[in-house]
């Protein structure tokens, strides 16, 4: 069955669904917020009868639907059996980030009946576990600004060929703070000599020249960078051939301040020189 492009937008409350929908509207999507799952097939049928006037639809479905939300997985299975094609975009963030956002906004969580925000966030995460497992794309917004989220949405769902070409994010992180949840490739560089143990370098970061010189002065670093660059250079065209819109390469060291930052910068620079669209981010560089 041919029909409109259906995008189901769901995820954690406070993870950025509103910003995502605004970006999708800018891309020409017809957006409906908080649609009861039981109405999705009927809505898809109506849109299919629009004779092409509506060809891209984003439906926001989340736990605000209360007891209706329990039907979502069954409804989506039926939708596929009826021949409708759809994708699921799932937005999430860490518990810490969601608690902070709720406290800053002073908004009440949809499941909150007793004032314990962290507990209801964990309850919601469990309720969403199945649909998260069915998602075509998961975006962790914990460390994304609104503009960065918008860029990812445009890269993934934009129609313009130039805008929609592969967006590569090279992100540094510290293993002590956890691996970025939306990583495609995770590179562990904890085997490299650690500037943390050099007193004059400890308080600096991989953005500082003395740290960069120290990390890259070792033969093991130079050899590793050559192999890593060749590896990534080999993979990217294959990802592009598969139609992948975004690629996140996460490079991690212990604290996310020195080695990972240095190598993320170096890899990002090499990829930019090769003509790729690259975003370089350092998730944990300001943590102590």
Automatic annotation (TrEMBL):
Domain RapZ-like N-terminal: 6-160
Keyword Translocase: no
Keyword annotations of the record: ATP-binding, GTP-binding, Nucleotide-binding
Entry binding sites for ATP: 11-18
Molecular function terms from GO: ATP binding; GTP binding
Binding, GTP: 62-65
Pfam families in UniProt: PapZ_C, RapZ-like_N
Top-level taxon in the UniProt lineage: Bacteria
Domain RapZ C-terminal residue range list: 167-285
NCBIfam families, alphabetized: PRK05416.1 (NF003828)
Protein name per its UniProtKB record: UPF0042 nucleotide-binding protein yhbJ
Species of the source: Desulfotomaculum nigrificans (strain DSM 14880 / VKM B-2319 / CO-1-SRB)
């Amino acid at each position: 069955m041919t029909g409109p492009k259906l995008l189901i937008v769901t995820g954690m409350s406070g993870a950025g669904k509103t910003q995502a929908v605004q970006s999708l509207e800018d891309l020409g999507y017809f957006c409906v917020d908080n649609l009861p799952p039981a109405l999705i097939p009927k809505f898809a049928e109506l849109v299919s009868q629009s004779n092409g006037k509506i060809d891209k639809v984003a439906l926001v479905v989340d736990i605000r639907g209360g007891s209706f939300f329990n039907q979502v997985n069954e409804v989506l299975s039926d939708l596929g059996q009826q021949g409708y094609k759809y994708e699921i975009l799932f937005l999430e963030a860490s518990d810490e980030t969601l608690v902070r956002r709720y406290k800053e906004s002073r908004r009440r969580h949809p499941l909150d009946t007793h004032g314990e925000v962290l507990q209801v966030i964990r309850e919601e995460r469990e309720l969403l576990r199945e649909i998260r497992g069915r998602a075509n794309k998961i975006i962790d917004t914990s460390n994304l600004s609104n503009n960065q989220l918008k860029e990812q949405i445009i890269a993934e769902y934009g129609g313009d060929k130039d805008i929609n070409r592969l967006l590569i994010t090279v992100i540094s992180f510290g293993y002590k703070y956890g691996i970025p949840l939306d990583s495609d490739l995770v590179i562990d560089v904890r085997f490299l000599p650690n500037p943390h143990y050099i007193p004059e370098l400890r308080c600096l970061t991989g953005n500082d020249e003395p740290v960069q010189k120290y990390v890259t002065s070792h033969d093991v670093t130079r050899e590793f960078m050559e192999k890593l660059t060749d590896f990534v250079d080999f993979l990217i065209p294959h990802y592009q051939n598969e139609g992948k819109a975004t690629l996140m390469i996460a490079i991690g060291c212990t604290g996310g301040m020195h080695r990972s930052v240095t190598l993320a910068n170096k890899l990002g620079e090499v990829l930019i020189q090769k003509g790729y669209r690259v975003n370089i981010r350092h998730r944990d560089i300001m943590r102590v």
